[in-house]
């Protein structure tokens, strides 16, 4: 025959289980947020790399192209053409980084869903 438990023991078990559920949800939220932070950092690295590439390597290539074009046209026109091409390249790199940044979701969706499920479960009447 099953041992009778006091109301106090039952409430203590319920309280302990609720505490464990909250702790589990917090652990899940931390894991999700950490993943999103990693993805955001990766996006930032890509955008920074695009900026560095647009500002450093292109400068040397651009001047070489400007001097080459200056043999066929005036220096100002050659510089304007090269500046336009560099702007398009920089825009392309930055937009690639921004597309990656849009994939970041700061709200831990799985945790929110799990908490909602737990709240619904707790609202159900017990028999």
- List the domain count as a whole number: 1
Number of strands: 0
Order of helices and strands: HHH
Any idea what the shape is?
rod-shaped
Largest sheet: none
- Measured between the Cα atoms of the first and last residue, the distance is 20 Å
The unreliable regions are: none
Name the average pLDDT: 85
Number of separate helices: 3
Fraction in beta strands: under 5%
Structural class: mainly alpha
Oligomeric composition of the shown chains? single chain
**Measured on Cα atoms, how large is the radius of gyration?**
29 Å
User: Share of helix among residues?
Assistant: over 70%
Explain this structure:
With 127 residues, this protein is mainly alpha-helical. The chain is 83% helix and 0% strand. It is built from 3 helices and no strands. The chain has helices at residues 7-69, 75-101, 109-123. The relative contact order is 0.12.
Question: Which features would summarize this protein structure in a list?
Answer:
about 130 residues; mainly alpha; 3 helices
Short overview:
By secondary structure, the protein is mainly alpha-helical. 83% of the residues lie in helices and 0% in strands. The two termini are 20 Å apart.
How do the helices and strands line up, and which of them pair or pack?
Elements lengths: L6 H63 L5 H27 L7 H15 L4
Helix pairs in contact: 1-2, 1-3
